[in-house]
Amino acid sequence: MTGTAANGGESFAFTPENRAKADAVIAKYPAGCQASAVLPLLDLAQRQNGGWISQAVMEHVAELLDMASIRIYEVATFYTMLNLEPVGRHHVQLCRTTPCWLRGSDALRDACREELGIGLGGTTDDGLFTLTEVECLGACVNAPMVQIDDHFYEDLDPARMKEILRAFRAGNPPESGPQTGRQTSAPASGLTTLTEL
Amino acid sequence: MTTLTIDGAEITVEPGSTVMQACIEAGKEIPHFCFHDRLSIAGNCRMCLVEMERSPKPIASCAMPAADGMVIRTDTPQVKKAREGVMEFLLINHPLDCPICDQGGECDLQDQAMAYGRHFSRFDEGKRAVRDKDVGPLIETIMTRCIHCTRCIRFADEIAGVEEFGAVFRGEHMEIGTYVEKAVSSELSGNMIDLCPVGALTSKPYAFVARSWELRTTETVDVLDAVGSNIRVDARGTEVLRVVPRLHDDINEEWLSDKSRFAYDGLRRRRLDRCYVRRNGALEAASWAEAFDAIAAAADGLDGSQIAALAGDTADCESMTALADLMAALGSPNLDCRQDGARLDATSRVSYLFNTTIAGIEEADAILLVGTNPRWEASLVNARIRKRWRRGGLKVGVIGPQMDLTYPYHHLGDGPQSLATLAKGGDAFADVLKMAEKPMLIVGMGALTRPDGAQVLAHARAVAEATGMVADGWNGFNVLHTAAARVGGLDLGFVPGEGGCDTAAICEGAASGGIKLLYLLGADEIALERPENCFVVYQGHHGDAGARLADVILPGAAYTEKDGTYVNLEGRPQRAYAASAPLGDAREDWRILRALSARLGKPLAYDTLDELRVRMVERAPALAAIGEITPAPWGEFGAAGAMDDAPFACPIGDFYLTDPITRASQTMTECSAAFVAAAEEARADG
User: Fold this and answer.
1) How far are the Cα atoms of A152, B369, B400, B406 from residue B446, in angstroms, in the given order?
2) Which of chain A's residues have a Cβ under 8 Å away from the Cβ of B167?
3) Closest Cα to residue B675, out of B189, B231, B248?
4) Chain A: residue whose CA lies nearest to B176
5) ipTM value of the model?
6) CB-based contact (8 Å) between A71 and chain B?
């Protein structure tokens, strides 16, 4: 981690569709307050840019919102959802905060290492996966869990973790949500109330 | 008015004050780091915690507005404990390197840790380290020492107008950084060093040079621009080791431009410390007697009209008085203090002053800039305009080159035509000026050093009169000078006498042989090749352009080495004091002139500085009131006639290299390469 932005070297501009979305976001805020649109725009730009925010992305957003580049950089470094380094095609975010840790996130990390050959912070050689450690994603009831791209995969064990990664590699992402068959965060051992409906 | 109780005593403060301001008014010392009264409130260091009645937790007094009936306590065990706790947290990641820190001895954190901290630490874990940033040739960064008060960020945003610093990453990983690693492109960046309450930002040229308690301080004024910033010169032995600003609310507040702050290393390079006489084409070291003999021989038998004198940009009023008197004694009307050729009228004081005053800018609501880049010509005037702009409701119009002034403006045109149009009311901005309650205009040397400068001045006067800039209690007509000696020189009448030559004519006469003896008092910025048939005397402190022309060099004193009077662009005379003695054989400039006058058989009528100052005030009564501005009455000035169509140009090509001292300074040369040359390259590429 350094105090200055990593140089991407390439240029960036919103596609016409994304530009229209960006304009729609900016239009939500009163004139002169367009800086409020910085987070949605960075997210939009990150999606267009293959999952990370390069220097060119920050400069484009800065120009669009009439902000200084350093103000964009402050926001981009504050939020972990914004990646300042290139990531693989699938970004696996492994929750290691206390509930997930107690429920076996270490085993999931080992499973990822075995399946992908990378540790936390690593990217596979084929550029398909990046594995990062994150703080609580708010799905503690279904711990342990990971977020892959935009989706939560919950109630995991090492075997299921590997299966999911294989499915992603095959280009066939599995259904997101709890992987044990339970409905959302209903009791893991089956319903205890409202059993007769 | 708001009345509240602080430590049992009632106090009444201005509405809108903070609890901290109220406490300070009540005579209570409130420790703080992030709060600074010229910056916005951040409230993030938490050192200023005080106890408020009915609040379960202590409050940050810098961010809490004072309200009627508040009961504040600053002396309870809870407050003491809160401060100790905050200090303990601040010191968690702060290295214990005071013995090798340049801030040591004048460090807020050091002082407050002594006064308000515990005498031990309970922190056994590893301290974090932060990579240092390269922010240019002026500021040394040791980012591990940073306590994240964010003063530097706020200064860059608010005062300097360059949004380049920011707080990046968060929590434990937060650090102060820039977007890409680059030098801070501000002419006021040095002030961050003063603002930094710890040793995270320190002066690069001063790094490991001295400890603050070893220095001998002298309170004086700066002469590297015409603002007359109040400075403190810190010296050890004969060497000036640093220059820092002094508080003067009407001039520089507590800021200083980088040129004034960092050019001091030029004071020990390329200095003239002995007399030189040119023999067989080469300058050879000589004694004072030999030098004076050579001048006397050259002056022998000359008519007054064959003798001329020019005063440079940093000449003090005393030496200009002495030189003007000497020229009068020699019967010469050929003298000029406007070595840049500015078409200024010495007979009308109002025509060459910054009449609104620098503090007065804060009252203005519309400003017209004509042929000037205040950011380079007078950085602190520009900072004041920006301060006014930030308050809102200020409209700025510019006639001249377009540049980044750190605030938005309407560009009305490049040259005199736009001024003429404006004078006739044919521009929308004319209405802006007319509608404004307190409009002002600032004419720069870019508009006045041209051959048609007097006509430009007349048109500027026409604009001022047509838009109601001159009214009771308000004078919106301003001239922006670039040289510290100029206003003083004009006040003293250091201008051509009856039938005398001005700068251009003197240079021409020296080249053609009409002028046989030319006396340069620190004049280095003149367009003159070494003349064949003219004997040139250069009196000054640096071996610069003027010394190269000279047949005799008389070593004078730089501004930190003599007591003198300087008049700033507002017309405010201020005293400068010697921080060290002149180098080698060099002498104070007025003494050289007094001694020379005796050798030439025309002794001046004063032997002491006090007697000379009496004569100086005789010549220029406005110089009597030191530190005060004597307002000048409105009058006729300028010359009627058409103006040339050529666009106005900036009188300063390079902010960092404007006079012999800055040109001799290594720091300034580095700055010029890092900022000016880099910017020009970028423009050429872009």
Assistant:
1) 66, 11, 8, 20
2) 74
3) B189
4) A3
5) 0.88
6) yes
